[in-house]
Design brief:
The protein is of the alpha+beta class and 676 residues long. It has 13 helices and 35 strands. The chain binds zinc ion (ZN).
């Protein structure tokens, strides 16, 4: 397939949020309503409801009497998300200071002025920052000169001390020792523990071979100099952020979770892990999509949120201080402009007296963090809506245990998808610049300003997520046990019923609640039964589509409640709902309304063709490992011009467009000579 539809899209939002004082909970004002709704949920695509895990038999949630149920909290969360999109609520982003970490592009411009250094004091992880000694010379040593040593044929490792008995030659501005030019005996490798600095002044840094090309690999060796430098607090904090999402740290966390039965204990410090346990073999030839094995040639130190005494690192030095630390020359860099610069006023509400519509109805939990419980409570606002668990009505069809493919984690570093570059023009970054897709690139420096976040994320509602030869949810042969899980799905046709109670809401708020349960009336031709809402997990697979029918069971306006008469009885429950919905639709600010067309498409079952929906595919056939590796797409869509081709910034299509308009080319790169 050369074209695909990405599983998620973004419903447009503008960074405008209308806020006001909420109704409060003390006294019911004029025209406020309390009461309850009865909802009937019909399952349209399989539901993944809790109880899915890697251990034990997966179960669906049920009440003590065995009746299958949808937990009220699940439905409440889903209703709230849709409410935010309909009325223009705040974005409940947890971390407004988030900026993604990007890889350094492979260009000499990103490695200029780096110095090799050796950690002389690792710091204490609290107040005392690491200190390094700078190397006064760097030589790149051919892997073939780092022969295994000792009776156990131990592989050379990061931190080993070298004696270099031949002089290096200059190649492309680097001093190198090539195996083809010097005898194997020209390099002596000694474990740091037995070598003295005077006899072996060179320190070896082995790094991953994964992204390398060429006939052989070279590793840097630095000769220890006398000059020292202290790491600045900013450089250390950036290092910690950059190392956090690295493959090594992610793997270490997974190991720790495995060991502690799921509790995240963090990665720990140097005392929790022996130096030798932190070493990883690197192989040659390097692993690729098609080949994962090679011959071990040396050992590198796994990336960790701490450094070790004697560990070589690359640093940038400014005014005698270390302002940047890298574990390899091309490593990881923090993007620029955190989320808070990119959401306008749509960041989470923080003032309980001035809340967006969604927070006024559903409440606002304080997410600014780091406050003690009492302070957090003060800054929160309790919602006006409570959702009871919904119980299955009649026979509830439940599927057999099935094996699920891993859910891929969000990658907001992919700015071509997550940021709105529509005002940024089409400029491509040169190969010496960060690609336009990355956070803080040239696309954030146009007259339009910093690119805003793209919108609210929705997953396309595919009509038959378990059909076809390779349904996306099904575990494939190349998926490992650690990433997959098993589940039992509630099947289409199941029906659930339950109750939603509300208190002290205006008619217009009640209307917004009803629309967030059943959004069909938002569109005048509102009888389209393909418009659904979603609940539960596995949305990327197309799971969780439901139709909700809402009926007003009881509504008392405040005076009526005390006088014993029912407002619902005066008007008839259907009329109250219709009135509430119409009032709400008329009241939604234009900024929120602007996203409705895209929202409608994103909520329409089967709007895009099931067969087209996949994460950016790689090479090979659907179902193969290569097909599930989309890095060629990310590379080809990053907005950069390299020697041989132009790689235009490829944005996600606007969901307000047509179904065929959602298709993206799997490889948008153009050979340069075909361009005018
Ligand atoms: Zn809010």
């Amino acid at each position: 397939m050369s074209e695909f539809v990405n599983p998620y899209t973004f419903v447009r939002f503008v960074g405008e949020v209308t806020r006001a004082e909420p109704n409060g909970h003390e006294a019911s004002g004029d025209g406020r309503l309390s009461g309850c709704l009865r909802v009937c949920v019909t399952v349209r695509t399989p539901l993944l409801l809790g109880g899915w895990g890697t251990s034990g038999q997966p179960k669906v949630p049920s009440r003590p009497d065995g009746t299958t149920m949808i937990p009220g909290s699940s439905l409440l969360g889903a209703v709230r998300s849709l409410h935010e999109a309909i009325v223009g609520g705040c974005l409940r982003v947890l971390d407004m200071d988030y900026v993604p970490v990007h890889r350094h592009p492979a260009h000499v411009g990103f490695t200029e002025d780096l110095a090799l250094a050796v950690v002389v004091d690792a710091g204490d992880g609290r107040g005392r920052l690491p200190k390094v000694a700078l190397c006064d010379e760097v030589v790149w040593v051919d892997k073939d000169l780092l022969a295994p040593i000792g009776p156990s044929l131990r592989l050379a490792a990061t931190g080993d001390r070298l004696t270099l008995l031949a002089s290096a030659e200059e190649v492309n501005g680097r001093r190198v020792l090539r195996a083809s030019r010097v005898p194997a005996s020209a390099v002596g490798v000694n474990p740091a523990s037995v070598a003295s600095s005077e006899l072996c002044p060179w320190v070896l840094l082995v790094t991953d071979t994964r992204a390398r090309s060429g006939a052989t690999a070279y590793f840097a060796a630095g000769r220890l100099g006398a000059r020292g430098a202290l790491v600045t607090p900013e450089a250390w904090s950036t290092y910690l952020q950059c190392v956090e999402g690295s493959r090594d740290v992610v793997e270490r966390r997974a190991e720790q979770r495995e060991r502690t039965g799921g509790r995240d204990q963090g990665v720990g410090g140097p005392a929790d892990e022996e130096f030798d346990d932190q070493l990883r073999e690197v192989v040659w030839p390097p692993p690729t999509e098609r080949r994962s094995t090679g011959t071990p040639i040396a050992r590198r130190l796994a990336a960790r949120p701490f450094l070790r005494k004697g560990q070589p690192v690359w640093v940038r030095v400014d005014g005698g201080e270390v302002t940047e630390i890298r574990l390899s020359q091309l490593w990881r860099r923090r993007g620029e402009h955190p989320v808070r610069h990119r959401v306008g006023e749509a960041g989470p509400c923080t003032d309980p007296k001035n809340l967006c519509w969604s927070c006024r109805v559903f409440g606002s939990a304080d997410v600014s963090g780091r406050l003690d419980d009492a302070a957090a409570t003060q800054h929160s606002y309790r919602g006006h809506v409570r959702v009871d668990d919904l119980a299955a009505v009649g026979e509830c069809p439940i599927g057999d245990v099935c094996e699920l493919a891993p859910l891929s984690s969000p990658r907001p570093s992919a700015g071509q998808f997550y940021l709105d570059a529509s005002g940024a023009g089409t400029a491509l970054a040169g190969s010496s610049q960060p690609p336009a897709a990355t956070w803080g690139s040239l696309a954030d420096r146009t007259r339009a300003g910093v690119r805003p976040v793209r919108g609210r994320k929705f997953y396309w509602r595919t009509a038959d997520p378990t059909g076809g030869d390779y349904p996306r949810f099904r575990r494939r042969d190349h998926h490992t046990d650690e990433t997959t899980s098993s589940a039992r799905l509630v099947l289409p046709g199941a029906v659930f019923e339950g109750r939603i109670t509300f208190d002290n809401l205006n008619l217009v708020d009640l209307g917004s609640l009803v629309l967030a349960l059943d959004p069909r009336p938002l569109w005048p031709e509102g009888s389209d039964d393909r418009i659904v809402t979603s609940v539960g997990g596995g949305k990327p697979f197309g799971f969780g589509a439901i139709s909700v029918a809402v009926r007003l069971e009881r509504a008392d306006s405040a005076p009526a409640r005390y006088l014993g008469a029912s407002a619902a009885n005066d008007f008839g429950p259907g009329e109250v709902i219709r009135d509430a919905v119409a009032t709400c639709i008329a009241d939604v600010p234009p900024a929120a309304r602007a996203g409705w067309k895209g929202l409608r498409h994103a909520l329409t079952l089967g709007f895009v063709d099931d067969a087209d929906v996949w994460y950016p595919p790689g090479e090979g056939d659907r179902g193969s490992a290569g097909y599930d590796q989309g890095f060629r797409f990310w590379e080809a869509s990053a907005g950069v011009e390299v020697e041989t081709e132009k790689r235009p910034l490829t944005a996600l299509p606007d969901p307000a467009g047509s179904p065929s308009g959602q298709l993206l080319p799997a490889d948008a790169a153009q050979p340069k000579h075909t361009q005018p």
